[in-house]
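User: Fold this; tokens only.

Assistant: Input:
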Amino acid sequence: MVTNYRRIDQSRNRIARSFGEDVLATVEPHAILLTTGDGVAIPLMYLSIAERKRPDVALIFLPLLPADWYLRQLRERYPDLAVPFDHYDGQRQNLRALIEANPGRPVAIIGTAPDKSLDQYYWSYQHGLVSVMEPASRQITLSEMTSDNEQLMKRYHPPSFRSINAESFESEILALYAQPASRIGDEYERGGWKKEARAWYQRALALDPNLPHVRQALAGLDRE
């Protein structure tokens, strides 16, 4: 312990905490925040449950939805959250039913939805570190998306890629910080704005150099 303490000491490592705080600062009041992945969920669970930060936000860990005890726990923890089923099956009792039982509450997700019930009715809008589920009828321009994410990214506290432990969940966190720039780059490339796409891809790589999709996209732009 004496020999290795400095190497393993994590008491000054604020990467997970800063990430959790940035996420909670991103979501709208009274939002429902859906998460997957331990590296993402655990910092948020700690801040939400242990420190009671953003008590207005209902934090739901999606991999636990099939457990009936977890649904009971959600009702106890968030009395204002309507959970419209006693058993989640991903078919009739699904995410769409959960969202529509809570009208007026913004819904954000980090990760992948465990069922396809939202596909025809909602689309995923990149809002900083989270994706906001927007009704299929709502349209948001690329310039609005760019401005929105520019403002959010200025407030964030991403770690340096040199400071993370690449073999830990910290690599997942770093990739999430780069995701807004990567997504905007994709949208610009899809629209044919190559200069803008290149600039946003480069911003994504400046945050996280280990993004194969972005590197491939940049290589494709350079060949054109």
